[in-house]
Write a structure and sequence with these properties.
Elements: H1 2-22, H2 30-57, H3 62-67, H4 70-90, H5 104-138
């Protein structure tokens, strides 16, 4: 999740900067969608980083404890799904096969593809977390505390 979000953050920040200099956008609302995607990437980096800190440091950080909950993972999944869906609906064209390797068209399609990939990774992680919670509840022993750091 973190690596995909870092890639998305770098690409969207570049596209926002390049588009602001030349005022070239694929559609009128595309600038706002790039800012939304940039925010979602930063959100995911903070979320995943906090979870790693929580797993490695023993769960003493407030942000990490909040980030490890299913609610935060569900919210992140909803953000990526809605953001990628909005990117898809506002995209002008994805027919870039006759253009050069590094063009605005290919970069915009890559932003959307990374958004869908991040949405998929979030959904898989959410499903795995819910499965882990379900198995943990049915196999819980009295006096035995088990958390997600068991699998790290």
């Amino acid at each position: 999740m973190t690596l995909t979000a870092m890639t998305e953050l770098g690409l969207t920040a570049f596209l926002i900067s390049a588009g602001s200099q030349s005022y070239t956008w694929a559609s009128p609302g595309y600038y706002s969608l790039l800012i939304l995607t940039c925010f979602m990437a930063a959100w995911t980096i903070v979320f995943a980083g906090a979870y790693v800190v929580w797993a490695l440091d023993g769960g003493i950080h407030l942000l990490a404890n909040v980030a490890s909950s299913v609610i935060w993972l569900l919210l992140t999944s909803v953000l990526w799904g809605s953001g990628a869906g909005l990117m898809y609906s506002s995209r002008v064209s994805s027919s870039c096969h006759k253009s050069a390797s590094i063009t605005r068209c290919r970069q915009l399609v890559t932003v959307e593809a990374l958004g869908w990939a991040e949405f998929g990774v979030c959904c898989i992680t959410l499903g795995a977390t819910l499965l882990w919670l379900r198995q943990g509840i049915s196999k819980r022993k009295p006096g035995y505390a088990r958390d997600s750091r068991t699998f790290v």
